[in-house]
Amino acid sequence: MSSGTRRPARLALALLSIAVVAAGCGGGGGSSSTADVPQLSAKQAKDPALVQGRKVWAANCTRCHGLDGQGGVGPKLAGEVAGDFPAVADQIALVANGKGIMPAWKSDLTPAQIRDVVRYTREVL
Ligand code: HEC
Questions:
Q1: CATH fold of 34-123, please?
Q2: Taking the complete model, does pTM exceed 0.85, yes or no?
Protein backbone atom coordinates (compact mmCIF):
# COMPACT_ATOMS: atom_id res chain seq x y z
CA MET A 1 0.00 0.00 0.00
CA SER A 2 2.68 2.49 0.91
CA SER A 3 4.49 1.99 -2.40
CA GLY A 4 1.16 2.64 -4.14
CA THR A 5 1.02 6.13 -2.70
CA ARG A 6 4.67 6.91 -3.52
CA ARG A 7 4.51 5.97 -7.17
CA PRO A 8 2.51 8.99 -8.40
CA ALA A 9 4.98 11.31 -6.68
CA ARG A 10 7.88 9.62 -8.44
CA LEU A 11 6.05 9.84 -11.77
CA ALA A 12 5.43 13.54 -11.23
CA LEU A 13 9.12 14.04 -10.49
CA ALA A 14 10.10 12.16 -13.67
CA LEU A 15 7.72 14.25 -15.78
CA LEU A 16 9.05 17.42 -14.21
CA SER A 17 12.64 16.54 -15.05
CA ILE A 18 11.64 15.72 -18.64
CA ALA A 19 9.95 19.13 -18.89
CA VAL A 20 13.08 20.85 -17.55
CA VAL A 21 15.32 19.05 -20.08
CA ALA A 22 12.92 19.84 -22.95
CA ALA A 23 12.83 23.52 -21.95
CA GLY A 24 16.64 23.58 -21.88
CA CYS A 25 16.81 22.15 -25.40
CA GLY A 26 14.28 24.67 -26.70
CA GLY A 27 16.48 27.49 -25.46
CA GLY A 28 19.59 26.21 -27.24
CA GLY A 29 18.26 24.13 -30.08
CA GLY A 30 21.10 25.13 -32.42
CA SER A 31 19.60 28.54 -33.15
CA SER A 32 20.84 31.85 -31.86
CA SER A 33 19.11 35.02 -30.84
CA THR A 34 18.83 37.91 -33.26
CA ALA A 35 20.86 40.03 -30.83
CA ASP A 36 23.90 37.76 -31.44
CA VAL A 37 24.22 38.35 -35.19
CA PRO A 38 25.56 41.35 -37.17
CA GLN A 39 23.36 44.42 -36.92
CA LEU A 40 21.83 46.42 -39.72
CA SER A 41 22.97 49.95 -40.44
CA ALA A 42 20.41 52.66 -39.72
CA LYS A 43 19.50 52.74 -43.42
CA GLN A 44 19.25 48.93 -43.70
CA ALA A 45 17.07 48.82 -40.57
CA LYS A 46 14.36 50.69 -42.51
CA ASP A 47 14.13 47.80 -44.98
CA PRO A 48 11.66 45.19 -43.65
CA ALA A 49 13.17 42.48 -45.88
CA LEU A 50 16.58 42.86 -44.23
CA VAL A 51 15.02 42.96 -40.74
CA GLN A 52 13.26 39.69 -41.55
CA GLY A 53 16.36 38.22 -43.23
CA ARG A 54 18.39 38.86 -40.07
CA LYS A 55 15.85 36.95 -37.97
CA VAL A 56 15.83 34.03 -40.42
CA TRP A 57 19.64 33.98 -40.35
CA ALA A 58 19.82 33.97 -36.54
CA ALA A 59 17.25 31.19 -36.21
CA ASN A 60 18.40 28.82 -38.96
CA CYS A 61 21.86 29.37 -40.38
CA THR A 62 24.34 30.35 -37.65
CA ARG A 63 24.88 26.85 -36.24
CA CYS A 64 26.74 25.92 -39.42
CA HIS A 65 27.90 29.22 -40.93
CA GLY A 66 28.78 31.04 -37.67
CA LEU A 67 27.01 33.99 -36.07
CA ASP A 68 28.71 36.45 -38.40
CA GLY A 69 28.95 34.15 -41.44
CA GLN A 70 32.66 33.44 -40.99
CA GLY A 71 32.02 29.72 -41.51
CA GLY A 72 32.05 26.51 -39.46
CA VAL A 73 30.46 23.30 -40.69
CA GLY A 74 29.35 25.38 -43.67
CA PRO A 75 31.60 27.69 -45.70
CA LYS A 76 32.34 31.33 -44.97
CA LEU A 77 29.67 33.53 -46.51
CA ALA A 78 30.60 36.96 -45.15
CA GLY A 79 32.02 39.17 -47.88
CA GLU A 80 32.24 36.28 -50.34
CA VAL A 81 28.84 34.86 -51.11
CA ALA A 82 27.76 37.64 -53.48
CA GLY A 83 30.93 37.02 -55.51
CA ASP A 84 30.28 33.27 -55.57
CA PHE A 85 26.74 33.89 -56.85
CA PRO A 86 26.79 36.85 -59.24
CA ALA A 87 23.14 36.07 -60.03
CA VAL A 88 21.06 36.28 -56.85
CA ALA A 89 18.60 33.75 -58.29
CA ASP A 90 21.34 31.08 -58.20
CA GLN A 91 21.94 31.72 -54.49
CA ILE A 92 18.19 31.61 -53.78
CA ALA A 93 18.01 28.26 -55.62
CA LEU A 94 20.90 26.80 -53.58
CA VAL A 95 19.32 27.83 -50.25
CA ALA A 96 15.92 26.52 -51.36
CA ASN A 97 17.20 23.18 -52.69
CA GLY A 98 20.27 22.54 -50.51
CA LYS A 99 23.53 20.87 -51.55
CA GLY A 100 25.32 18.04 -49.74
CA ILE A 101 25.24 18.79 -45.99
CA MET A 102 23.56 22.14 -46.66
CA PRO A 103 19.88 21.51 -45.93
CA ALA A 104 17.11 22.41 -48.37
CA TRP A 105 15.03 25.21 -46.86
CA LYS A 106 12.08 25.34 -49.22
CA SER A 107 9.84 23.28 -46.94
CA ASP A 108 10.80 25.15 -43.72
CA LEU A 109 10.99 28.72 -45.01
CA THR A 110 8.66 30.67 -47.28
CA PRO A 111 10.00 31.97 -50.62
CA ALA A 112 9.98 35.47 -49.08
CA GLN A 113 12.01 34.30 -46.05
CA ILE A 114 14.57 32.68 -48.38
CA ARG A 115 14.83 35.86 -50.49
CA ASP A 116 15.22 37.95 -47.32
CA VAL A 117 17.94 35.80 -45.73
CA VAL A 118 19.83 35.71 -49.04
CA ARG A 119 19.77 39.51 -49.14
CA TYR A 120 21.03 39.63 -45.53
CA THR A 121 23.98 37.36 -46.37
CA ARG A 122 24.90 39.47 -49.43
CA GLU A 123 24.31 42.95 -48.04
CA VAL A 124 24.95 42.77 -44.28
CA LEU A 125 27.41 39.98 -43.43
C1 HEC B 1 23.61 21.79 -41.25
C2 HEC B 1 24.52 22.88 -41.55
C3 HEC B 1 24.03 24.03 -42.38
C4 HEC B 1 22.97 24.89 -42.12
C5 HEC B 1 22.02 24.86 -40.93
C6 HEC B 1 22.97 25.86 -43.18
N7 HEC B 1 23.97 25.60 -44.06
FE8 HEC B 1 24.43 26.66 -45.73
N9 HEC B 1 25.87 25.34 -46.21
C10 HEC B 1 26.27 24.25 -45.44
C11 HEC B 1 27.30 23.51 -46.14
C12 HEC B 1 28.02 22.27 -45.62
C13 HEC B 1 27.50 24.17 -47.37
C14 HEC B 1 28.46 23.75 -48.50
C15 HEC B 1 27.65 22.95 -49.50
C16 HEC B 1 28.50 22.38 -50.62
O17 HEC B 1 29.05 23.17 -51.39
O18 HEC B 1 28.60 21.15 -50.72
C19 HEC B 1 26.60 25.32 -47.36
C20 HEC B 1 26.53 26.23 -48.40
C21 HEC B 1 25.77 27.39 -48.37
C22 HEC B 1 25.78 28.42 -49.39
C23 HEC B 1 26.66 28.42 -50.63
C24 HEC B 1 27.98 29.03 -50.27
C25 HEC B 1 28.92 29.12 -51.44
O26 HEC B 1 29.59 30.17 -51.55
O27 HEC B 1 28.99 28.19 -52.26
C28 HEC B 1 24.89 29.37 -49.00
C29 HEC B 1 24.54 30.65 -49.74
C30 HEC B 1 24.31 28.94 -47.75
N31 HEC B 1 24.87 27.73 -47.39
C32 HEC B 1 23.37 29.65 -47.06
C33 HEC B 1 22.71 29.17 -45.92
C34 HEC B 1 21.58 29.83 -45.31
C35 HEC B 1 20.98 31.13 -45.78
C36 HEC B 1 21.20 29.05 -44.27
C37 HEC B 1 20.02 29.27 -43.34
C38 HEC B 1 18.72 29.40 -43.95
C39 HEC B 1 22.11 27.91 -44.21
N40 HEC B 1 23.00 28.01 -45.24
C41 HEC B 1 22.06 26.90 -43.27
C42 HEC B 1 25.76 23.92 -44.21
C43 HEC B 1 24.64 24.50 -43.61
A1: Cytochrome Bc1 Complex; Chain D, domain 2 (1.10.760)
A2: no
